Amino acid sequence: MPTSTRAAVLTHHGGPEALTLESSWQVRDPGEGEVLVRVSAAGVNNTDLWTRQGAYGVPGDPDAKSGGMGPIDFPRVQGGDVAGVVVAAGHERDETWVDRRVLVDPAAYGSDGPDAMPVGYQGSEYDGGFAGYMVARTDHVHDVHDSPLSDEELACLPVAFGTAARMLRRADVSEHDTVLVTGASGGVGVALVQLADAAGATVVAVTTAAKRDAVLEVGAHHTVCRDEGEVADLVGDLVPDGLDVVADVVGGPGLGDLLPRVRDDGCWVIAGAIAGPVVELDLRRLYLHSIRLVGSSMHSPRDFAHLAELARGGSVRPPIAARYRLEEIHEAQEAFASSRHVGKIVLLPHA
Description:
Layout: E1 4-10, E2 19-26, E3 34-43, H1 46-53, E4 76-77, E5 83-89, E6 101-104, E7 107-109, E8 118-121, E9 133-137, E10 141-143, H2 151-154, H3 158-170, E11 178-181, H4 187-198, E12 202-207, H5 212-217, E13 222-225, H6 231-238, E14 243-248, H7 254-258, E15 262-270, H8 283-287, E16 292-295, H9 301-313, E17 320-325, H10 329-338, E18 344-348
Parallel strand pairs: 11-12, 11-14, 12-13, 14-15, 15-16, 17-18
Antiparallel strand pairs: 1-2, 1-4, 3-5, 3-9, 3-18, 5-6, 6-10, 7-8
Helix pairs in contact: 3-4
């Protein structure tokens, strides 16, 4: 069992300099109910950048430096998306996990039960997968040994697809719905497109003209290009009868403009704010038309178990935009922040 590993370690909130590459980061022994995972691939997410920047704010002070769940204990190994192989167990009863290929659930839950709420996040409240090895709880690893997906594809799933799965479940998306997906070329956006399409819904994706073909290829039925006109007007022309669901990871001023395009009894579910966390909207559009405005964060145990089942069956196939070695993490995060890609950026700790 290794005693040290390479790891990308967050030392404070800040720019790229806050994230350092350690060549001999100590690997702790797994305890009872834990296993040691050799990380095959780890996905990059907005959460990693926002946690590094401390960009989540706190109640009453949206500009305060904070992680998503509050203050971060430094140093911290980042990385919420992990696929790998179990190489050791902390107790003999857990040794059946050894040599299994696994997908790691990155959420820490505040209670038991299939619909428990996340209270912590791997790579934020506890160490994650931007390392050669990591310790995971046995109730957080899911066997995907027979999945047709590659390790790199599996590593695209936990955060983005887990977030998307919960969003669509909270919005009760079905085959009868027309669903608008904002930010459709990003990790969660692509996941929303693929999962809504798999549910039989009609998917309208907001993207750019340069990314239109790629977004259609991953499963969107129609696109609205924000660089070709006002999104609300374009949506009104495309879907004159209105939208059943908006699955939003963008936020910003577009929320107020698009809200009138949602049908009566429709739903707006939001899990991101990359266009701005503070918005104005006409509350009359909500209550007069019985529109549900639903906040959604990470997945529940039920959502992640469903995601692992989809992975085992190969029902989703996340596109990989780029691959980087662990020592190229700054380049990987820079590429991620540029938003020029479609799909996920993946780190390979052992490449």
